[in-house]
Protein 1
Amino acid sequence: MDNSLLPSTPADSAERSHPRAPSRSIPVVIASGVLGVLGIGFMLVYRAEAGVSKVALASTPKGVTAIVARETTYRETHTYVGTLRPWVEANVGPQFVSAYVDTVLVRPGASVKRNEVLATLDCRNTSASSLAVAAEARAIDTHQKAIADESARLNSMLDGGFVSPNEAEQKEAQSATEQAQLASQKAKLAATTLAVDDCVLRAPFDGEISVRSIDPGAFVHPGTSIVTLVDRNTVRMTFEVPEIDFDAVAQKTAVSIDVLATGKTTAGAISRRSPAADPDTRTVHVEVDLDNANHDIPVNTTGEVKIQVGEPKPASAVPLVAASITGSKAAVFIIDGDVARKRTFEIEGEQGSDLYLETTLKPGSRIVTEGRALLADGDRVTARDVAFGSALMNSSAAGSGASAPEVKP
């Protein structure tokens, strides 16, 4: 039933004429929320501002690693690269005949004695030729003896007039001809004998086999190497030096040799020096004889020869990683109190990982190693001291933070 048709009461009429007032709590809630958001924002801004350093980076001391320059002496060392060669070396192969290889009796590493058979060739044809020449020589020899005897008998009958002088002279000339043919045949026999002997290849000296180039069945020609024999009881360190170092490599000059194949260092003295330079390279040939009776040094390998020249000079040593090198000068950072000062010094020389500077750099000065690339003259630093020998190791481990020696043209 529709309520609009019902009669209205006095209470309903009063409610329609006086509407209900809104609640007062809604503005309070809104205001509280706004204040809360503002408070949180303020706290976030405060926290962010508190984490920002107000101190300029330029005024902050930079952390570096330092070593103390070492007092020492420096003597210039010249280094040359050369070859460790055997005392004698021979390529053993045929010199007169071409033939198939029958046997090769040795392999690399084998020790052999002088005249020991190393290989043989199939020389049946050469042997047959030699036998034929020998037989022909014997036939000529027999014939020549018969003619010589006949010539002697004819000459004995000249006095009785039994033969004419012409006949005797003809027989004597025939004997001389046969004698010449016999000599020619003997020379031919000697040549064929050499060819036969060339079919058996023997060691020319005591030594070791270093290379086996040919196996049985191969066809070889004169000059072909079948095996290579070396004698390394004495090793010759051979190297070339520029002509300006002629005086530095005088005979009996002491040298130090690094054998790259074994990693060992041996001492020696210059045994011989060429009196003339190579006209093309303008270098002088030098040799050092090394005793190698125990066969520790492999031959035909690389060696480095170091020779000290001049007189020792006082110097201050620093690691190479502590310097920036330009020509003959090196720039380093010296720690003065808590300030790094950039200074430049003359270079006396370098050796290994060490750089030798003039003594204007006072021994005992603290030199920056790690962190040098980030410094400028006058920067404040906080330094951590390390031992001299560990400077290079530390710079390698530091990666991009370390500064390697900078070399400028």
Note: The chain is about 25% helix and 35% strand.
Protein 2
Amino acid sequence: MSNLEPPHNAQWKQQKMRPCCRPVLTSQFLLKILVGIAVLFCILGLLLVLGSDNVKEVSVRYDIQTGCQLDSEEPNYGQPCTVDVEIEEDMDFPVYFYYQINNFYQNHRTYLESYSQYQLSDKKPDNVDNCDPIDRTLTENLKKIYPCGLIARSFFSDRFSASVMTGSDVVGNLCTTCDEIAANDTVATNWGNFVEDDSWENKDIAWTVDTDDRFKYTPNWESDYADAVTNVGDYQEKQGLLLPRVDDPDFIVWFRTAALPNFRKLHRIIHKYVDGNGNEVKKFEKGQVVSFTVHNYFDVQQYSGEKHIVLTTLTWFGSSAYFLGVSYIVVGCFSFIGAAILLVWQPPRKLGNYDEFAWLTDS
């Protein structure tokens, strides 16, 4: 007989390689794992629950309030309305202003894929690949839209200004230029792009990876591509608005599509406001009212949607996370119960010399 090994009989090919670590799952080893998980999860859950108590939040639905509804047949785009948000507890700054939209499906496959990466990052305004069905205007010249696609077309275009009131007295204003931007017809065709006012900031609302790498604006495109590209789509033409720049923070936030039909997106960060005496105020006080003037452009009636204004504070882990904290505590409790059952059923005992087991030897 031949002493040659059969072909392909190497340990690697036959998947017989010994692992570098082979833990012996004794009751003592499992007991340590269960107790460790229980302690870790209970502590983390307790921190989340206690931290959630420090989150102050107030929310108001405004699309159903008087004057804030768009006519379904002849929408009166830009119509201003007033929405009052009463502060129920003291809210230390920074306070985060979100808009919330319900029943809007940004996670639809066709919607997600309808944009041009070339326009966003490669500074090619005339490249409308993958923007179907919103890539060109419906006018006779068929200009290419910049930015194109369904995500850009549906950009959230409501505009806000706000004042802080105690009783019937205005004690401070947020964003002193917002009324002009929202109400002036000549200004309303353009977006503010970057607002660095500490009472109404938007420069830090988008992810750094997006602002630094993904979204690049093409300067002078209006003159270089005047005959082929436009920033007015069919929806914007009805609204009397232009599409925002691709590096606009509000546009970037909108472009981070939501996974669920009910979602919030950060709109502004409020660090302070200045009262009538010129003093900087660092919190909203209980009983005050933040009175928002909303210039209404974004229509949600056609798909039975909802629009909300949300003011909230955040903690080290973000917004309120009661459910997550309670879930961690429940898992930790079950681990403790499992450890107790294991301790009674298989109490720890001294382990023998496992080197004597044949399945652990090299032979």
Note: The chain has eleven helices and 14 strands.
Protein 3
Amino acid sequence: MIGLEERVAFLEGRAVEQSNVLAGVRDSMRSLERSVERLELRFDGLERRFDGLELRFDGLERRFDGFERSVSSRFDAMDAKMSRQFTWLSGMLLTGLLGMVGALIAR
């Protein structure tokens, strides 16, 4: 049979081992906590950068909207000008045709 002192010594050894394991777990938790804090800081930085990019894209979108309106108004103006020119050209061709028909009839 094992004596009382041996049992107490065994239990003290186990308690020391458990406390060492617990200290290791605490250290690991602190290290994990620091890593998570660093990641949070990095994510905060990334979030700020994405917010800046979003503002830049909003600015680009406004510029493209303005460009689109400008091009659209130019095409509308060109379409109206071509319609007027077509009307004048059709009128001249019709006048020329009537002139030739009139000349043939007069002969």
Note: The CA atoms of residues 5 and 61 lie 82 Å apart.
Protein 4
Amino acid sequence: MGRFIVKLDDYYLEWSTIVDAPITYGMKLKEFKEFYKDEYGNRGMEELPKRLERVENQGVSTYHPYNNLENLITGNRAGDNEEELTKQEIIKGYCIDRPED
């Protein structure tokens, strides 16, 4: 699979299906767009609007309709020792209480 953009409340982050966890901390949309341009360049920015449209509709940027946000985070390994976290625990740990840069 790979990497998806995920929206948790008002935070955007990248999620890896390889590690079944976030691979970035949650960011507000403006900050996420800046990160995305730095990470993927102009070519990445060309596809970003369509990816964000899917995120707004289903919580995740995947094309597969069965792979909505709830399905994606079920069985995640985002916690210590790869334990599964709830959506609220992910938001707290990766978005609200994220380390300062």
Note: The mean pLDDT is 92.
